[in-house]
Amino acid sequence: MNSSILRKKAVILLSGGLDSATILAMAQQQDYDCYTLSFNYGQRHCAEIAAAQRIAEHFAVCDHKVIHLNLDCIGGSALTDAGIAVPITGLTSEIPVTYVPARNTVFLALALGWAEVLGARDIFIGVNAMDYSGYPDCRPAFIRQFEQLANVATKAGVMGESFHIHAPLLHWHKHEIIRHGVQLGVNYALTVSCYQANEQGEACGQCDACRLRRDGFAQAQVVDPTRYV
After folding, report:
1. Which segments does the entry list as coiled coil (predicted)?
2. Which of 72, 150, 152, 221 is deepest in the core (most CB within 10 A)?
3. Annotated binding residue at 24?
């Protein structure tokens, strides 16, 4: 039997942000052969795509793909519609306008397709239900339901080769993620989290993503390597 068949493979959703870089490091620590997947989906900037490429190269992943989508065609989010301003007033109890309709559902579906082609049965996603912006597709219920879907919607799944959706950061606070990532050797200077970073990858320092990131580094007592405008 070909020994390569016995190696564990995983598809990692790699946005270029802090959380996704951390889960990539976690997957490698667990001895997975990592295949990273990013999306140019019509978001406000491409700095995170460049960041994802840097991170993939840093971790020497097996393969890194960037899939082009046009979620900006349907809009409905401050991240895909230039006519909707990115909020800078801080988190509220409401789902913010930075929520992108069906984004994680679409991303996981494409990751599932690639995983089936690769013979991988593990998919990692860096969603977080603690320090987050209230997105419905970052909750435990969503992850559970998608995993069930994966196992009835694929040839591999119905033949008994179960897929597993790993969301290891689901119940972690941002400072816990950062501390763990530092222990794993993650270089957070490579990452971009800002919703409206400029072409050089410099962060605005005012959006929800920037606030969560900055507070996380402060609480972790780790120097924040973010480049701000």
Report:
1. none
2. 150
3. yes
Q: Is 19 annotated as a binding residue?
A: yes
Q: Is 210 marked as a binding-site residue?
A: yes
Q: Is 184 annotated as a binding residue?
A: no
Does the annotation place 204 within a ligand binding site?
yes
Domain boundaries, the chain: 3-220
Q: What are 130-142's pLDDT values in tens digits?
A: 866 678 999 999 9
> What order do you get walking across the sheet with 9-13 strand by strand?
63-68, 33-40, 9-13, 122-124, 164-166
pLDDT digits (tens, 9 = 90+) for 12-36: 999 999 999 999 999 999 999 999 9
- For residue 129, name the pLDDT band (cuts at 50, 70, 90): confident
138 belongs to an annotated ligand binding site? no
% of the chain exceeding 90 in pLDDT = 88
| Alpha-carbon dihedral 147, 124, 100, 19, rounded to 10 degrees | 140
> Residue 14 annotated as binding?
yes
22 is in an annotated binding site: yes
* CATH superfamily, with its number, for domain 3-220: HUPs (3.40.50.620)
Is 16 annotated as a binding-site member? yes
Handedness of CA 217, 129, 181, 40 (dihedral sign): negative
